[in-house]
């Protein structure tokens, strides 16, 4: 089989050590000299099918992600991504590194900046401002506005729309696309989810213009955000049940509320 590489894969090669490069070269040689069926049935690299025809292989202390396709010349291997476990950045206590850290930047800390604190600024408090309260404003209530309800609107339902399902679309899966994973990519910009005590709880990946995905520290999908308008995002659990919403407080900060209109955190 031919072996091709993606730009993302090429950019990651510099992170590999000498032994990992040597094992990667052996992997490529094996792929070039082996038929598809024999290669996939081999136990040499601990191959695992992750979904959407994406495979994971263990290359010494690195993890290789690839797919196998076919063109007019036959089968070919496309190397998608590689990550080295020998040099993973150490996760800081309290969350991943973020250049927008509310603990050090008072402008994005609601506990210090009164303009983004709903207990002080009534315009971003849904208990006072009914226009941002889904219980009062039916246009942003997914139980009333079916366009915001993934159980009715299949375009925002990851179980139906594969383009926003990270188990199928590897480009939005931080386990496969390490550029979206703050554990591997220190420069990942978030946004990150914090509770009101400034503890980092999760990070967000944009699926499309309407839908965002919230992942926990282990890169497991935990909830889904659907944009209701420029000021409101509604939040659903993995069973497509409405569990809360976010209100835009500034260009950088979104406040998180539960269904009882309790302020429980924020995105930045």
Describe it.
This protein has helices spanning 7-12, 18-32, 36-41; strands spanning 2-5, 48-51, 54-59, 62-71, 74-84, 192-195, 200-206, 211-215, 221-227, 232-236, 242-248, 254-258, 263-267. It is mainly beta and 268 residues long. A hairpin with a 4-residue loop joins strand 9 (221-227) and strand 10 (232-236).
Q: In percent terms, what proportion of residues is strand? A: 25-35%
* Largest sheet: number of strands, sense, barrel closure: 8 strands, antiparallel, barrel
What is the averaged pLDDT score? 90
Span of the ends, CA to CA: 45 Å
* Count of helix runs: 3
- Broad structural category: mainly beta
**Low confidence ranges:** 87-93
Proportion of helical residues? 10-25%
Estimated radius of gyration? 22 Å
Order of helices and strands: EHHHEEEEEEEEEEEE
| Shape by Cα distribution | elongated
Overall tally of domains: 2
User: Oligomeric state of the chains?
Assistant: single chain
Strand arrangement in the largest pleated sheet: 6-7-8-9-10-11-12-13
Could you give the count of β-strands?
Answer: 13
